[in-house]
Structure formats: structure tokens, C-alpha cells
């Protein structure tokens, strides 16, 4: 059997040698010489540049005959030749070294935040995904998340599911905390985005405002009008509004009616006012996103103060202006990029109800008490960044902010800079 195989291989090699000889360069073509390695005693003369084998286009001349190989060696050589001939004809280009993969590319590789219960872990927001993984913010970065593991996560998930009654925004009481929940239907299933609310409302002095600004805002407790807080989501607007309302109730007493979706800060209950009277707060959730109906109900309840969780519909904006110009002190929040943007948004919202722009501008000018735009910066230590514009609490006095709003061309940059300078120097903003 091996003799036959040897004969076939030798026959095939002879045919290949004949083919290579017949395909040699035509007559007149100089054949490339075969370089013989010099011996150790010979001097090496400079050689002409040799084209690398991968770039050569002329076949190499057949080599001198070699001693016969064993059948096994011939089989191995045949296999190696087949492997080489099947490789791509294009040379491989060397690639630069690639950076190592991050060791934290998957949630499973991150060290989770751990605690006995959710109540014992400090966080503001928690996201419960359809995959039954909970995440909180990574306090070492500005935006990244980190898994959280506690002993009551499964119970929390059940509480979220059981509290849902068909409305995507709702509140849940769990483990001694109140959560504001937004239930979202994603392509992977139901996700719960939850905000853990503080167990008590903070004092206005602890939020990061300058003492002069706090003094002015607290001094508006006996005024009537609209005090608006603007900024992005999650920047402490509701906390500021609630802290101010708590101070008003503790100072002058009175009845506070809130319209929220859902109620966030723990404001409800009785307050012993410094003037010897009482303050009372009733927090009411918005039903079926009917903010306008909630405001109309509030006006019929004869409150001294009205807290509107957020102005996000035309009817809410128009009803806030009505309340602010009818003897109530109204505090609310709005999403806006600055003080001027907040005022323009109020006009656009209210005008969308069919009111004339000039009428809306006049209502806003008569009712506005001020606008504060705020945002938070930092990771572990949050810093409050804010700007403001306050109108004269006396609506009958001449006021640049009110006149600018009536004109419809709201440009308050210089006015705001002047007020900031006065505040920094401890000067009163208004003469009367």
C-alpha cells in the first residue's frame, strides 16, 4: 500500500516539476539568481535589495533535487502546502494594540450598594427594571448607576405592583418611607422609577440660599401673588417650595392647600404659629391629571396659601394666574432653562387656553412676585446654583420687572444683575 502511495506522490511531483519548468519565464527574461548563503570564512559583499517574498511577482526558479522523503513526511508536506495555499493572498496588516476591556462593563461586575433595608440606605432615586434588578445613583460620579441589594427588595417590588391602580404616577408607603412612583411600560416589561421622599421637610436656611435671599422670600408670607421656582427635573424645586410653605405656616399660620401629583414632602397636619395661632395643611393628589379641576377646588376652599406641584398644562397656568391675582399666595414649579424662559413659558401656556397674549402678560405682570431658577451641582456634595428676579410685593408701585413683562419683550439680564448686587451688599431691593 505504501509503495503505491509513494509511486503516486512521485508521479505527481514529477508532473508538477514539468509544469513549473514549462511555465518558466520566456526566452530573453533574466531568471533571478539563487542566493547561496556564504560560509563563515567568506566576506559578504553588499547585495542588491531583494524584494520581500510577499511582494514578488516572478516565480522562484525550481530548487535542486532533494533526497527522497518518507511517505509520512510527504503526506505532512502536502498538508502544509495545502494550508499555505488556502491562506488569503493579501498580506496581514499589523493592528495597533487595543485597549483592555473595562472590568466594569456589566452590572454583575460592579460592587453593589448593600444594606439591610431600603430605609437604611441613603439614596434619592431607585430604578426597578423588568429584569428584577434595582439601581441607584453611583455617588462617585455625576450620572452613573450602581446595583443595590437589600433584604426587602422583593417586598418593595410587590408593594409597587399592588399599589398600582391604573394611573402611572402614584405614591407608595414602604418601610417607613414615601416613594413617588412612575410606572413605565418598556419593550422588556414594566419598570418602576421611584423617588424616595424625605421623612421630614427641611428648613429653608439649610438649602444653600444666601441669607439675604432667604430673608426676602420668607418676608413674602403676607403678600399675594405667584412665586415661581424653575429648573430641570430633580434639582430641588419641590424641596424649596415645601420648605418655604413650612416656614409660612410656622410663622403666620393659615390654611395651605396643595395640589400635587403625588404629594411629596410631609407637610400635612397642624402647625403652631409664632403669632400664637395655628397653621393647617391639607395635601391633595391630582386625579386623572386634572390640575385645573384641582385648582378650582382649591379656590373654593378659601386657602391662604396654594402649592401647585408643577405647571405643565395650559389650564394649570391660567388658573395659577387667576389665583395669584385674587388675593392668594401661590407657589409652584415649572421646567425652564432660566428666569426669562420660565416667564415666557407661563405666557405661552396660559395663552394656549384661548386668552389674548396681552391679557395674559398683564395678568402675569400683576400677579408675579418673583422667579427663582435653581440647579444642583456635584456628586457627593451637592451645591445649589441659582439666579432670581423679584418684583415689588406692592403691585401698585412702579416696578421694572412688571413693566418688562407687560411689554412682552422679557429681557431681565441687567435687572437681575442689579438685584444680585443689592442682595450681596445687604441693601433692600425696593424702597417701599
Question: How would you sum up this structure, described in words?
Answer:
The protein has 2 domains: 107-197, Beta-Lactamase; 204-425, P-loop containing nucleotide triphosphate hydrolases (Rossmann fold), CATH 3.40.50. Helices cover 32% and strands 22% of the residues. The chain is built from 11 helices and 15 strands. Strand 14 (368-377) and strand 15 (383-390) form a beta hairpin. Helix 7 crosses helix 8 (339-351) and helix 7 (314-324) crosses helix 9. The protein is elongated, with a radius of gyration of 40 Å. The N and C termini lie far apart (120 Å).
Structural class: alpha/beta
C-alpha end-to-end distance: 120 Å
Q: How many distinct folded domains?
A: 2
Which CATH class of the largest domain applies here? Alpha Beta
Query: If you compute it from the alpha carbons, what radius of gyration comes out, rounded to the nearest whole angstrom?
Result: 40 Å
What is the N-to-C order of secondary-structure elements (H for helix, E for strand)? HHEEEEHEEEHEHEEEHEHEHHEEHH
Instruction: Using the 3D structure, state the CATH architecture of the largest domain.
Output: 3-Layer(aba) Sandwich
Number of strands: 15
Q: How would you write the strand order of the largest sheet?
A: 10-11-9-12-13-8-14-15
Mean pLDDT: 81
Shape: elongated
